[in-house]
Design brief:
- The protein is of the alpha+beta class.
- It folds into 2 domains: about 5-330, Porin (Beta Barrel), CATH 2.40.160; about 335-485, 60s Ribosomal Protein L30, Chain: A (2-Layer Sandwich).
- Helix content is about 15%, strand content about 45%.
- The strands form 2 sheets. Strands 1-2-3-4-5-6-7-8-9-10-11-12-13-14 form a 14-stranded antiparallel beta barrel.
- The chain is elongated.
- The model is unreliable at about 1-30, about 200-205 and about 240-250 (pLDDT under 50).
Amino acid sequence: MSAVQRKKSSLIISFLLFVLLFPAGILCDGLPGEFLLSSRWRDLMWYHSPLSNPAFLTETSNLTFRAAVSPVLQGAFTLGEMGLTVPVLLNHAAGVSLIGEYDGKVQSARFDETSNRLVTGESEISNKNFYGMLSYAFIPWKNLSAGVNFALAHQTNFGEPQTGVGLDFGFSWKLVSSDSSRSHLLGISTVNLISPSVGSDDGSYSRDIKASWAGCFLNKSLEAGLDLDLRDFWARVEDFKADGDLRSAAKDLEWGLSTRAGYWILNTFAIFGQLGFGERGFEYWGLAGGIRVPLKKNLGTITSFYQYNIKTEGSLASSHTIYLLWSFGKNRKEMWKKQITDTSQTDLLSKLKEIRGLKVEEEKEYIRITATQIAVNFASGSADLPPDAIPVLKEIVAFLKTYPNHPVLIEGHTDNDPIIGKLREKFQDNTALSQARCQAVKDYFVKTENLPEELFTAIGYGESRPLVPNDSRENKRINRRVLVIVKK
């Protein structure tokens, strides 16, 4: 048999095997790579998978491992996906994925031109297809995300192993309500746009363009999604024709509409439903149940689903999918917020050190800010906050806001000059005067700047804790001070 005849026979055999083995619609027309276009078996994982849309990677806040395996047609063949998503800084993400299809082994065959029929051979051939991806996504502007998949495809397709590379793109736009109780994610993406031309193949690879919507409601308790696919939109008409005893089949535009909705109970248990439609009408339905389990020692959260899905043609077209999602590591948004906070703390602390009359001391557990009489100059015998102290206190407030929920102690200190005359009607002694002064600082923080009152404690020590002996006018000025002490 000539090389041309062998190629012709191989194509005919491959086409027959696809038609016979995959009536469930997982593969539509026998073009290479169509196992990538089906999403119903991996529907509950599409939000986490760059195969659905690489731009979705920016929605992942933690390191996330995913896996799904699905025996189809009662185990006649198996589909699977696994991958890892890695958040990078605040607006970037990367991922690595492997998608596979294994259809077992069948007896080889050859085309007998004399009898014009297939003749079973002695060897076995298999259909094993693997699709590896490196993915990258980033947020270039506001809520817009863009992503790219670089793919390496390896297939046997009941023939000699072949390898090729491909490229895909995706974009998404996120809308979030003002109270963050609901969100919408819109996306458009491709599969096999720049298809992996493998071996002697001329690039006739199954292509898909997908429009997606995902919504979260009731503080993420209710989830819903919708995908509209246009399949094989770029393939040539002649790719869908066959000679010999097989009937010619002209290319038709194929489309699919898949929907899903689910509800989380106490953020732990979930139930999902699926419906699918196509050019033939209602095509499949599915049910799934899941559980989310937080792990100990900051090991993250594991989510598992079991999905049953069936085509409307009959029970033989059923599939079962087991999912596993493991989110672990530090949340990138919290890490970025901490990094910004740390930067702000350093900058604001440096600014405080430059203010005349302030002394800043950093200790292991505390940050001590001492405001001398130069910075906060109370009038003699008065606890009224002086106007020229307000700018200084505003700078301290800006620093305190970088330590939310941290306790703050305000101390008041005086010299040893006694309270005399009519002042004793208002302040019994220096302890009472210092208490009133540090209370005035606390009131400014709480009542004027709206800092949480429960974080502040004000204690007046009067003359009991002098820094230097009260034996000179200069020393007495040093001993009159207010301290703001932040616990780290």
